[in-house]
Design goal:
About 45% of the residues lie in helices and about 25% in strands. The protein is of the alpha+beta class.
Length: about 60
């Protein structure tokens, strides 16, 4: 089965932590639900980065994904 990486960029620390944690949980739940559909010929793999709400960290976090 083909694996497809999905990059998730959410600040789960710092000033955005409450929104970021909720958004990350929602994205992971959606990926889990999609992966349960047996007719899909792929599996989604979550790759997550946490820039911690620091503006300068977003670019490096995106590059890591």
């Amino acid at each position: 089965m083909k694996e497809i990486s999905i990059g998730l960029l959410f600040s789960t620390d710092g000033s955005y932590r409450f929104m970021g944690k909720s958004a990350l949980e929602g994205a992971l739940f959606a990926i889990e639900q999609i992966n349960k559909i047996e007719s899909y010929p792929f599996k989604l793999i979550a790759e997550s980065e946490n820039p911690k709400g620091i503006d300068e960290s977003y670019v490096s976090s995106i590059r890591n994904l």
